[in-house]
Structures are given as structure tokens and as C-alpha cells.
């Protein structure tokens, strides 16, 4: 065979570099997915307390803190979103909930938490929070690095075939 010719050595180096790059991409995608999943779980843990606070016109400041925590985690997910439309949609919801929550908190601090305006705000925030959770869950699901793993597996098989038989054209390995 011609396994040790300069061309073969160069090809082997190219294969090695290509696999290193692909491995780095897969590892990066996995880290991103893990961070997004952690934020998704943090949102799930806080959502019930936030909804309870919204349902209680006399609720203390802890509910507002839960909502702020949800918005922080949702922002982390938005920042990691590949799809700009999805990211912008999440950011719009975050801004809307932030503004509505500030308004509701002001009303509650003034002792007006049980007014029709405050109740309508709380209901609107509750609905928007549910929608935000749906959007962040979808963003996490859409970010799964399935394609990268499939490509990595295919590239490794292709590289292995070429390594096993370097005289055959590797078709761009």
C-alpha cells in the first residue's frame, strides 16, 4: 500500500483536523444544551410559586422574585438560541412580563393588589408566563444537537474506511 506517502500523510492530517473540529462542535453543542436544560428546569421549579403569587392579591415579595428568576433563566435560553426569530420571541415575552410585573408590584405596594386592574394584570402575567415557558421549552427542544452527532458518526465511519484503505478516494474526508 501507499499508506506512508506524503499525500497519504497529508490526507491523514486533514482527517484528524476535521475530526477534531467536529468533536469540538459536538462538545460545544452538548454544553449549550446542558445550560439550556438547566435553565428550563429552573423555570419549571419557580413557575408554580410565581403562579401562586399571581393568584394571591396579598402575596409577599417572594413571588415577584420568582418571576424575576424565571425571566433571568429565560434570558439565558434566549441568549443560546440559534434561531433569531425564536430568540426575539422569547425576549419580547421577557420584556412584557417584566413591565407588567413591575406595574403589578407597584399596585400591590400601594395596597391596590385586589383591584380589578391588578387582578387583570395578574391574569395577563400568568398567561404570558405560561406562554414563555412553552417558548423556552420549544427552544430547548429545537437546540438538540442531533445533526452534529449524526454527522460526527458518518465522518468517523468515512474516515475509518479511508484509513483502512488509503488508496481509495476518500471523497473529501
UniProtKB/TrEMBL annotation:
Gene Ontology molecular functions: actin filament binding; structural molecule activity
GO biological process, one term: cell adhesion
Statement: the UniProt record of this protein carries the keyword Membrane: yes
Coiled coil: 19-46
Membrane topology classification: Peripheral membrane protein
Gene Ontology CC, one term: endomembrane system
The keyword Zinc appears for this protein: no
Keyword tags: Coiled coil, Cytoplasm, Membrane
PROSITE patterns (UniProt xref): VINCULIN_2
Subcellular location: Cell junction, Adherens junction; Cytoplasm; Endomembrane system
Predominant location: other
Record PANTHER family: VINCULIN
Chain's role: Actin filament (F-actin)-binding protein involved in cell-matrix adhesion and cell-cell adhesion. Regulates cell-surface E-cadherin expression and potentiates mechanosensing by the E-cadherin complex. May also play important roles in cell morphology and locomotion.
Protein name per its UniProtKB record: Uncharacterized protein
Species name: Scyliorhinus torazame (Cloudy catshark)
